[in-house]
Amino acid sequence: MEQSYLGKLIAYERKKKKISLAKLSSGVLTHTGLKRLEDGERFPSFFIMERIVERLARSMNKLELLLHEKDYEIYYLRGKIEKEVEQKEWEKANQSISYYESLPVIKEVLHYQYVCKMKAVISCEKKEGKKALKLLEEALKSTLIWWENIQITEGEFPLDDILEEYPIGKEEIILLLMWLWQMWEEGKSVRINGKKLLSLLTDYFQEDEEERAALLSKVCWVLGSLSLKQGKEEEAYFFTQEGESVLAKNKILLYLPQYLDRLVMIGEKIDDLETEGWRRQRDALKEVFISYGRCWETEEIPIWKNLKLTDIYLLSEFLEKERRVCIKSQQEIAFDLEIDPKTISRLERGHYKPKTETFQKIRDYYKIARDVCSTRLITEDFHLLEMEREVSVYHHLNCHEEAEKLYLTFRNKLDLSWKVNKQFVLYQDMICSHQLGRIGHEEALEQCKKAFHVTRPNVSPENVDRIILSRGECMIINYMGICYRKMGQIEKTIDLLEKARWGYRNSKIDSKYYYMTLGLLYSNLVEHYELSNRFEEAMNSVEVAIHYELDCNKCSDLGYLISMKQYIADRSRGSFLEEGKKVYQQSFQLMKLMKRELLMDDLKNGYREWYGEELI
Taking a C-beta distance cutoff of 8 angstroms, is the pair 86, 305 a contact? Predict the structure, then answer.
């Protein structure tokens, strides 16, 4: 994706929402800087880009990023601080924050704001309310230039006026929530209409399901806590159900333990008929946490914490792998491109951030479509990216007719001169035709290869262990594996998936930032090892996959994986024992929690066959 394209994406969304350059950039960068970004003359830091995208009410999870080592070091440092705070290791957390403050980037407003926020979190935990409130106000006014002029009329916080007048990002709304909560904790009179707030934010983020889920799960918890403090249990139950629903719909594990505990607790008090169902689902998930050494959180949720699943790759690792695919030395690449060999070396060691023209020359030489910032589709309309996500979800749920129907509504809006768009269209045409019976397995396989070569003309699918796949490329490789299996060549499937997984090994990047690709590979390897009677490898893989889901705070396939673990054990010994019933019942409740109806039906059919009774 060209830098000018990223700018066009932002400009299109800004103009669609009728937001001025000055308002969108306010407190983050100059409006001239934003104009240069939109015109493709400047590529900002990851953190500035994240805030601009958030202010447009869009999720960063739709982007794939090639980060420079220094940007990732800050990203990693933030994760380290947050883990230390969660584990209440105050001394370590303060040391890490002090180190952050010693870095040159602390002069930049977004880094200063983050440090203020985390200091406020620590102060809250230490019951230093006034200090926390002061830090939160400092964090808010650092990017919200209107903050000091805000008028609270008769104790009513004017959030609807603010959202109407100013673009606010998810992180800034979280800071507002933290400030409101701390004000209530300090006994300050600040009123807010909970249901009105929920409606406002639902409308504000109506075009991006991921961003809406990430925020509303926090808002509903805060409103539920406030309602409980006021003795309004029915209202608290409403907000808690809303929060649980948005988490389950998006298969987000973060905060689910607290939500389920609260649903059971309030449900018992108000004698709600659904309470027993919530208890079964809560107990099923709790058993997984205990079995895998995870802490079952029952305290207030950390509303300051964000679930980040943006696909992140290190630019240095990416460039080195692409050079090795070409079987060229650094000196040969430098000679061909008329670049100093030391420049190539510094790029691959992460010591140098390439200029735009240098990176473009390298991309053209390697014949790759990836850029510093990429999306699954090249489009000026973020809404099409959301629709692409929904198509993928439909396929994942085996709802292929619904997937095709939605895909065809925007297929003709895609510019096929862009390689990633052409690849996407070839892949979607193939998967819809194959799943709906219009083409056979061999033709589907050939179309997969054709789609793969659009962005990887110099790489054979059998050599994917030498590269880092994009999200789209990984989906194609995975489907090629499905085709091989249906053609009776399951060992080819396993070999292909193993090689695809191998490309991510030995990376400095935390594997949770590859969730959309690795999660898919792990789940499918489990299934294919089991089908080929490689039970030991299947059991090892299912353990890795379960841990990975928990590490990433996602639970798309958690119920399926727990059932597969038991099924592999049963098949390896050739019998279905009575003790397995409990595990399958647990898996069923997890699938029910995540609204995985088709998986539930499959498990019920299997249970009836194995035990001669119904699974309820």
Answer: yes
Torsion of CA 478, 483, 486, 491, to 10 degrees: -60
Can you tell me the distance from the alpha carbon of 265 to that of 252, in angstroms, rounded to the nearest whole number? 21
Helix (H), strand (E), coil (C) string for 201-228: HHHHCCCCHHHHHHHHHHHHHHHHHHHH
Q: Say if strands 373-375 and 63-67 run parallel, antiparallel, or are unpaired.
A: antiparallel
Distance from C-alpha of 147 to C-alpha of 139, rounded to nearest angstrom = 10
| Whole-number Å distance between alpha carbons of 190 and 155 | 5
Burial of 510 (0-12, 13-18, 19+ CB in 10 A): middle
364 CB-contact burial (10 Å; exposed 0-12 / middle 13-18 / buried 19+): exposed
pLDDT at 153: 63
The amino acid that residue 14 corresponds to is R
CA–CA gap between residue 169 and residue 166 (Å, rounded): 10
Complete edge-to-edge strand list for the sheet that includes strand 373-375: 311-314, 63-67, 373-375
Q: Do residues 287 and 279 make contact, with C-beta atoms less than 8 angstroms apart? A: no
In this prediction, the residues of the chain whose per-residue pLDDT falls under 50 are 1-3
The whole-number pLDDT of residue 115 equals 97
What does the DSSP assignment read for 283-319? HHHHHHHHHTT-----S---TT------EEEEHHHHH
Give the residue among 414, 459, 397 at the shortest CA–CA distance from 429.
414
> Which uninterrupted H or E stretch holds 64?
strand 63-67
64 pairs with which residues across the strands?
311, 374
> CA-CA distance, 545 to 526, in Å (whole number)?
8
The string of pLDDT tens digits covering residues 227-265 is 999 999 999 999 999 999 999 999 999 999 999 999 999
Q: Which amino acid is at 276?
A: E
- In sequence order, the β-bridge partners of residue 63 are 375
Instruction: For residues 344 and 424, give the distance between their C-alpha atoms in angstroms, rounded to a whole number.
Output: 32
Supply the pLDDT for residue 4: 59
pTM of the shown model = 0.89
**64 backbone dihedrals φ, ψ, rounded to 5°:** -115, 125
Who's near 518: CB < 8 A, 6+ residues apart?
Answer: 501, 504, 511, 548
Instruction: Return the closest-CA partner of residue 420 out of 376, 388, 479.
Output: 376
- Give the closest residue to 120 by CA, choosing from 138, 134, 132: 132
* Distance spanning both ends of the chain, measured CA to CA: 50
- CA–CA distance from 364 to each of 72, 258, 324, 337, 370 (Å)? 25, 50, 16, 10, 10
CA 354 to chain centre: 27
- Please give the distance of CA 160 from its chain centroid, rounded to a whole number: 28
Q: 153 with 278: CB under 8 angstroms?
A: no
**Tokens at 467, concatenated:** 């590269």
Return the amino acid letter for 352. Answer: Y
User: How far, in Å, CA of 217 to CA of 231, rounded?
Assistant: 21
pLDDT at 1: 45
What local confidence, expressed as pLDDT, does residue 268 receive? 94
- Measure the CA–CA gap between 457 and 426, rounded to whole angstroms: 15
